Amino acid sequence: MENNTANHDLKSGGKSTGPRVLLVGYNGANNTGSEARLLAIIEDIRSLLGPTVEITVPTLNEENLRRYLAEDEHLHIAPIPSIFFFAIDKLVKQHDLVLLVEGSCYMDTWTSALLWAFLWATNRAHHHNKPCLAYAVDAGELSSLNRWLVKREASKTDLIITRTRHAMEKLQKTGVTAPITSTADCAYTFKEEEDHDFLNRIWPESSNGVVGLAVVDFSLWPVVIRPWGRKKDLYKWPYYFSRSTERKNTREKLIEGWARTADEIIKKHGKSVALICMEELDHPLAEDILGKMKNKDQCRIISSGQYNASQMTGMLSDLDLLVTSRYHAAVLSLRAGVPQIAVAHDPRLTSLYQDLKLYQDYFICHDAPNLWEDLRRTIDLLLANGDLEKDMLKEGLQEQVTLSQKNRILLGEFLKEKNISSLK
Fold first, then answer.
1. Domains of the chain as residue ranges with CATH
2. What angle in degrees, to the nearest 10, is found between the helix axes of 144-153 and 165-174?
3. Which backbone phi and psi does 315 adopt, to 5 degrees?
4. pLDDT over 60 at 341, yes or no
5. pLDDT exceeds cutoff 90 at 12
6. Using the 8-state DSSP alphabet, how is residue 281 labeled?
7. pTM reported for the whole predicted model
């Protein structure tokens, strides 16, 4: 595949008008959380380095990225191939600063390839003597090989800012020797457009109130690397979703459980149900859940493949209750104080719910033996009394926003230390 990485000097009329910053992350996946983070981080960079700072966003999916990121003379989109090593090396060499901007940075939950891309960017930055900063990222499960790689390569980062204390401690226990500090996720400072009452505008029939179910197909992950495979399992060559009888059974149980839960919410509480796809990849699961439901007319799929981060945040803010397997659904609904329950499958929601003091009563692991019974009981409890979490949500939001605002401060100090400033 041809390498189409951007030539910044040509795009800016033959000369650079500001420092060149490379943002390496999960960009262009139609993922609401990644979109909100990216836009918030661009705002942070411009506030510190001025409007003429040269920013490049590499992506495996240029078309999706252009849906929510407007390219201009100083903001560049750089398509890269699936086999990314040469392209990332070239981009790193062209820039003055490398930021790792993907929240799920130091984990192989989704695929080792994503982790390797971030570690490779760090490696190349170290090789080319370019400052490298991991910006409000997370750490999670790692295989033995990947734990060794993270220890070796992440230690070459100039500074790692984690979005939870748990992630910081995990990296330290892994043996990462780079300076590490913890704050909170960038999405807390995401400035959405005016999308108040958005849910009512797109779904006026739901005036009786809506419970949102932000679902994830746990059985899809991790994506594996193969030279070939079935077309229906292809994510983007050479990355394929893995399938097995066990995974198929897990998926079927997930579909049945969510469908039954949605029908109970509609029948028992008189609420409509939104099946929320925080990433476009969640949509097939949502379709299958809807297909199993008895009360399809009172349920609707709302997807990041159709709506941008501002619209999705507006929708989340209008819910009566959120049941989420997605980290950023919890984060982006928090500002509106929406009562929430986690059905979690990785450490990100675990850490967040511990920070919010919701872990003991409102957190359920996806493989809990009594998952659906526990979920039904907790839904009934919160729909009967939505104020039960009110104080915890308010206090948690204030704390997380305060921590999130430190990201920009730390970035400013880092830029000063590395002598990177706007060009006058």
1. 8-190+400-417 (3.40.50.2000), 198-388 (3.40.50.2000)
2. 100
3. -65, -45
4. yes
5. no
6. G
7. 0.91
